[in-house]
Specification:
The relative contact order is 0.14. The chain is globular and about 55 Å long. It is α/β, with parallel strands linked by helices and 331 residues long. The strands form 3 sheets. It has an 8-stranded parallel β-barrel, surrounded by 6 helices. A two-stranded antiparallel sheet has the order 1-2. The protein has a two-stranded parallel sheet with strand order 7-8. It has one domain: TIM Barrel (Alpha-Beta Barrel). The protein has helices at residues 37-47, 81-93, 111-114, 138-157, 172-177, 192-195, 197-210, 232-245, 271-280, 294-302, 313-317, 321-330; strands spanning 8-10, 13-15, 19-21, 54-61, 73-74, 97-103, 119-120, 134-135, 162-167, 216-223, 249-254, 285-288, 308-310. Keywords: Flavoprotein, FMN, NADP, Oxidoreductase.
Length: 331
């Protein structure tokens, strides 16, 4: 049997195959972040046939100041739970597990979107988006940590099978992780262990809020692909710390250059970084990026760059791609 069709047991969660629908922003939420009928219809279309083992719902903002863009889904208040529950039922009703991604944009947004001032680790312009944020105080950091925990409780109440902490694509936690945007001189800046201190606080707070047995994912913007930024060895070192802190699955993507790799456009273009992380940890690793053909998935799995492969933008264009791909390997 092809690897793509083989199950993977990962302690708290079992994957029926190795194909993942990754978190992709579709910007179909209402102005106040509620799930809409258009949102439900989109996911219903993409999940038809239950081909994916798991779907990770697009990043949901945990507080108004962390909203990234118009049309983004909110998990910042209790009144978002009913709509999010409907979305979970759509995904799970197709036979696919559902995980919700939680996010704070930090400096990768605008006051026009949030109605509030920009906040970030340091007063440094974000490489992906203009604007210099106000440096976060320790009280600001504590509020963000609490907001992640509250959001995880809402996701669990809405019926999701797990949550994913977003630390990629130049958003807030990625800004702390990257030496390009974190110039702090306190315990949250400097060496790698300090730059991921906020991550460990979030992990601990979420664990306490939802329990030890609830699956917890983390998406890491492994490399920045910019001079002075993070490299694969930094991602591997951080990944090991995250595993020890209680993360169940690591989801590897890009950092300050977003969801693209300016140095590689081949299928699985975060493969080198994913491989470095996979070699450093014993928990499952998801890799995404540029997969277009059925053969791409199996080749990446055979190369052992990751345990699970995410395919999103190809599926945005072709809703039947995942089902066709699995059937291709069943022949």
């Amino acid at each position: 049997m092809a690897i793509i069709n083989t199950p993977l047991a990962a302690g708290k969660i079992t994957f029926k195959n190795r194909l993942i629908y990754p978190p992709i922003t579709i910007a179909k939420a209402s102005p106040d972040g509620k799930v809409t009928d258009d949102s439900l219809a989109y996911y219903q279309d993409k999940m038809r046939g239950g081909a994916f083992s798991l779907a990770i719902v697009e990043h949901c903002y945990i507080m108004q100041q962390g909203k990234a863009s118009a049309g983004q889904v909110s998990i910042a208040q209790d009144d978002t739970v009913p709509g999010l529950a409907k979305l979970a039922r759509v995904i799970k009703g197709a036979g696919t597990r559902a995980v919700l991604q939680m996010n704070h944009a930090g400096s990768c947004t605008t006051p026009e979107v949030t109605g509030m001032e920009l906040k970030g680790p340091s007063p440094v312009m974000n490489p992906r988006q203009g604007g210099v944020p106000e440096e976060m105080t320790k009280a600001d950091i504590a509020r963000v940590v609490d907001a992640f925990a509250d959001a995880a409780v809402r996701a669990k109440a809405a019926g999701y099978d797990g949550v994913e902490i977003h630390s990629a694509h130049s958003y807030l936690l990625n800004q702390f992780y990257s030496p390009l945007t974190n110039l702090r001189n306190d315990e949250y800046g400097g060496r790698l262990e300090n730059r991921i201190r906020i991550h460990l606080e979030v992990i601990d707070a979420v664990r306490k809020a939802v329990g030890r047995d609830y699956p917890l994912f983390l998406r890491l913007g492994a490399c920045d692909y910019l001079q002075g930024g993070n490299k694969a060895e930094d991602a591997a070192a951080a990944a090991k710390i995250f595993e020890d802190a209680g993360i169940d699955v690591l989801d590897i993507s890009g950092g300050m250059c977003g969801y693209v790799n300016p140095e590689n456009s081949k299928p699985g273009y975060f493969g080198a970084e994913s491989k470095a992380v996979k070699d450093a940890v014993s928990i499952p690793v998801i890799s995404t990026g540029g997969v277009k053909d059925p053969e791409d998935v199996e080749a990446l799995l055979e190369a052992e760059i990751a345990d699970l492969i995410g395919v999103g933008r190809t599926v945005m264009k072709d809703s039947q791609w995942a089902e066709r791909t699995l059937n291709f390997y069943r022949k």
